[in-house]
Amino acid sequence: MTRAIHMLNGPNLNRLGKREPEIYGRTTLVEIEAMCRHAAGDDTIVFRQTNYEGQLVEWIHEATDQEVAGIVINPAGLTFSSIPLLDALKMFKGPVIELHISNIHRREPIYHRSLVSPVATAVIAGLGARGYPTAIRALREILDDAAAG
Question: Active site includes 100?
Answer without folding.
Answer: yes
